[in-house]
Write a structure and sequence with these properties.
Elements lengths: L1 H14 L10 H5 L14 H11 L17
Amino acid sequence: VGAGFGGWAASMAGAAMPNSRHKQFMSEVAQGRILLMVDVAEHKVSEVHALIGRTHPEAVDKGVEVNVPVFP
């Protein structure tokens, strides 16, 4: 029971921490802009970029993050 409670408490504390990946976008989100982050396979990036460009031409591309595996 103690281990279960400890795991739950730790996960709740971790969930309360701000995500460092979002930090660079927070000022625009505070202004009411919408942040859309899409997680797709690398070979689908251009296809998704084109789709979003067609459906939302006002969208601004802020780049592609390098794919770094969690367990190398």
